[in-house]
Automatic annotation (TrEMBL):
Sequence intervals crossing the membrane: 47-74, 151-173, 185-204, 255-281, 302-323, 366-384, 421-449, 461-480
UniProt name for this protein: Integral membrane protein
Superkingdom in the source lineage: Bacteria
Record organism: Streptomyces aurantiacus
Pfam families: DUF6350
Keyword tags: Membrane, Transmembrane, Transmembrane helix
Residue numbers spanned by region Disordered: 1-40, 515-578
Pro residues bias (residue ranges): 26-37
Biased composition (Basic and acidic residues): 10-24, 520-546, 563-572
Length: 578
C-alpha cells in the first residue's frame, strides 16, 4: 500500500535542486565515500525498489484495462464467454496498447488475420505509469540516498517486462492471441524509453555533454556543432541584451528539436481538425455505421470507447492527407487530396465512414494544404524566436528598442538560421514518419492488409513541405526582427507654426500640418497701437518639442520690422448721431 501511495501521490514537478546530488552540477564524491560493500548494498536496494515499481506500474495498467473490460462484459445482455474470456481480452488489449500485434485464427477462410493498428491513446497509460515508476525509483526516499540511475532504470524495466511476459503467456490461450515476435520487440522498447525518461526527469532533465564517441560522430554533421550540448532558451522581455549573445549561441540541435516538435504538433492538430470537419460532413453515414455495429448499450459504449482511443490515429491520418500522400484504405486503395479511391467494402466503423468520397479532389479537398503551411510558419517562428533577439518592452510600458548593432551581433547569422530551419524540417519529417508507422497497420488479410498512412511517403512529404515554407518565412522573420527602429516625435510647436503627429524616418516627413496663429491686442497708449502675440497655449500631455533648449522669452522682439508707430488698418467707426 505504501508503494501505491508513493507511485500515485508524488508530484511530477518536484524541484530536483532540493537534493544536493541532483542536476547536471552535482557535487563530486567526497574522500569519505562509502565502502564497496555499502555501495553494493545500495545498488541491491535500488534494484529491488525498481523491480517493485516496474511490477506495480504494469499491474496498475493491466488492472485498469481488466476492470473496464469486465464492466462491459457484465453489462452485456448476450455474453458469449465466461470471465476467463473477458480477462483474456483484457490482457490482449493491454498488450495491444504496447504495440503488440494480435492474431485471430477463427476466421471464415481459416487464414490467420492480424490486428496491427495500435490505439495511440492507450499507449499513454503504460507510458505514464512507467515514467512515474522510474522517476520515483531514481528519486529514492528521504531516509536513504538515491540509487544509481542505471540501477533504478534496469529494475523498473525488468519488473515491467516480467509482467508483460506473464500476460502474453496468459493471453495466448484464447482469441485474439498476441504475436510473439511483436511481444519481444515493442513492449521492452516502450518500457526502456519511458523508464529512461523518468530517470532523466528525476535527475533534473540535464543536458550535459554527450559521450565522446557519439559527440565526435555528431560533430561531423554540417548542421550543428555538438561541442557544448546546452539548452537554448528563447529570449523574453526580461532577458537583458547583454546575455542575448550567450542565449542565441545555444545548440542548434536543441532549437531544431523544439521547433520540429512544434511543427509536428501543428500538423497533427490540423489533421484532427480535418477529421472533425469530415465527421460533421459525413455525419449521417457515421451515425448509421455506429448503430449498425451493435444494438446493445454496452456494445455501443465499447464501440464509442474504441473510437475515442483511435482519435489520435485519425489525427495522424488527417495530417498525412493534408501533406499529400494520404492514407491506404486496403490493398490498392488510397485516399488523398488529389484523388480518393477507397475500398468498396470497408468495415462499418464511425471513423472509416468519414473518409472522403471516391473521385478526383475538389477545391474543398485542396484546402487541406493550409495545414502544412501553418506548420511551416510555426517551425520558422520557434526557430527565429530562439536565435534572433527582438525588441523588448521595459519600464512602465515604454518601448525600448535595442540598437540594431547590438541585436545583430547577438543574433544568428542567415546561414546558421537557415541550417537550423533545415534541420528542424528534417526532424519534423522523421517525427511524422514514426507517427505514421505507429498509426497504421493491418486489420486482416487480402484487402484489409494495409490500413493507414505510408510512413516512407509521409515523412519525406512533411520534411519537404516544412522546408519549403519555413526557410523563406524564417529568413524574412529574421530580417523583420532586426529592422531599424522608427523615431517618432509628436506635438512640435514653433513660434506661429504648429506641427502635429510628426514622424521621422530617414529624411521623410509624414502627416505634417501647419497652422498660423494670429492674435493681438490693441493698446490705447498715446504713441499708437502695436500688436502683440498672444501667449501660446500649453501643449497637450505627451507632446515634445525639439526647441525646448531655447529660452522661454521672446528673442525676436516686436513682430514689426521697426519701431515706428502704425496706423490701424481700419478706421474706427463714426460715433452715432442723435
Amino acid at each position: 500500500m505504501a508503494g501505491v501511495t508513493q507511485l500515485t501521490d508524488r508530484s511530477p514537478d518536484r524541484n530536483p535542486e532540493q537534493r544536493p546530488d541532483r542536476g547536471p552540477g552535482r557535487n563530486p564524491p567526497s574522500p569519505s565515500s562509502p565502502p564497496p560493500l555499502a555501495r553494493l548494498r545500495r545498488r541491491s536496494s535500488g534494484l529491488a525498489v525498481g523491480l517493485v515499481g516496474g511490477v506495480l506500474a504494469a499491474g496498475l495498467g493491466l488492472g485498469a484495462v481488466a476492470v473496464l473490460v469486465t464492466v462491459l462484459w457484465i453489462s452485456s445482455p448476450y455474453p458469449d464467454s465466461g470471465p476467463d474470456g473477458a480477462l483474456n481480452v483484457a490482457a490482449s488489449l493491454w498488450l495491444l496498447a504496447h504495440g503488440t500485434e494480435l492474431v485471430r485464427t477463427d476466421t471464415l477462410s481459416g487464414v490467420p488475420a492480424p490486428i496491427g493498428v495500435t490505439p495511440l491513446l492507450l499507449v499513454a497509460l503504460p507510458g505514464w505509469l512507467l515514467h512515474r515508476a522510474a522517476r520515483d525509483a531514481a528519486d529514492g526516499d528521504a531516509m536513504s540516498p538515491p540509487p544509481p540511475a542505471r540501477t533504478a532504470w534496469a529494475g523498473v524495466v525488468a519488473g515491467y517486462v516480467t509482467v508483460v511476459a506473464a500476460a502474453a503467456v496468459y493471453a495466448s490461450a484464447a482469441e485474439p492471441r498476441p504475436s510473439w515476435t511483436s511481444v519481444v520487440l515493442w513492449p521492452p522498447l516502450l518500457a526502456m524509453t519511458a523508464a529512461g525518461a523518468g530517470v532523466w526527469t528525476a535527475y533534473g532533465r540535464p543536458l550535459g555533454p554527450l559521450p565522446p564517441a557519439l559527440r565526435q560522430t555528431l560533430d561531423a554533421l554540417p548542421f550543428a556543432s555538438f561541442a557544448s550540448f546546452v539548452s537554448a532558451t528563447p529570449l523574453s522581455s526580461a532577458t537583458p541584451l547583454s546575455s542575448a549573445a550567450s542565449l542565441a549561441s545555444g545548440s542548434r540541435l536543441t532549437v531544431a528539436v523544439r521547433a520540429a516538435a512544434a511543427g509536428a504538433a501543428a500538423l497533427v492538430g490540423g489533421g484532427a481538425v480535418l477529421v472533425g470537419v469530415s465527421l460533421v460532413w459525413h455525419g449521417g453515414a457515421a451515425r448509421e455505421s455506429f448503430l449498425e455495429l451493435t444494438g446493445s448499450w454496452s456494445g455501443r459504449c465499447a464501440v464509442l470507447l474504441l473510437a475515442l482511443a483511435l482519435v489520435p490515429n485519425a489525427a495522424v491520418w488527417g495530417a498525412a492527407y493534408a501533406l499529400g500522400p494520404g492514407f491506404a484504405l486496403g490493398a490498392g486503395h488510397a485516399a488523398g487530396p488529389l484523388l480518393s479511391d477507397p475500398a468498396s467494402r470497408l468495415p462499418p466503423f464511425p471513423l472509416l465512414a468519414a473518409v472522403p468520397d471516391a473521385g478526383p479532389g475538389t477545391p474543398l479537398n485542396w484546402m487541406a494544404g493550409a495545414v502544412p503551411l501553418v506548420a511551416g510558419v510555426v517551425v520558422a517562428w520557434f526557430t527565429v524566436g530562439a536565435g534572433v533577439p527582438g525588441r523588448r518592452k521595459a519600464g512602465a510600458g515604454e518601448e525600448e528598442a535595442a540598437s540594431a548593432t547590438a541585436r545583430r551581433a547577438a543574433a544568428w547569422s542567415c546561414r546558421r538560421t537557415a541550417e537550423t530551419l533545415a534541420l528542424a524540417a528534417v526532424l519534423c519529417g522523421l517525427a511524422l514518419a514514426v507517427l505514421a508507422a505507429l498509426a497504421g497497420g493491418p486489420l486482416g488479410v487480402a484487402a484489409l492488409a494495409d490500413f493507414g498512412p505510408i510512413w516512407w511517403q509521409t515523412g519525406p512529404a512533411a520534411a519537404g513541405w516544412i522546408a519549403v515554407v519555413c526557410l523563406p518565412t524564417g529568413l524574412a522573420l529574421r530580417s523583420w526582427r532586426l529592422r531599424e527602429p522608427r523615431t517618432r516625435v509628436r506635438g512640435l510647436r514653433v513660434r506661429g507654426l504648429r506641427v502635429r503627429a510628426l514622424r521621422l524616418r530617414g529624411l521623410s516627413v509624414r502627416a505634417l500640418r501647419a497652422r498660423h496663429e494670429r492674435a493681438g491686442k490693441r493698446s490705447e497708449s498715446a504713441d499708437g497701437q502695436a500688436s502683440k502675440e498672444e501667449a501660446t497655449p500649453a501643449r497637450p500631455t505627451g507632446e515634445h518639442s525639439i526647441y525646448e533648449f531655447l529660452s522661454s522669452s521672446d528673442p525676436f522682439g516686436s513682430v514689426w520690422d521697426d519701431d515706428l508707430p502704425r496706423e490701424p488698418h481700419r478706421a474706427d467707426p463714426p460715433a452715432p448721431t442723435d
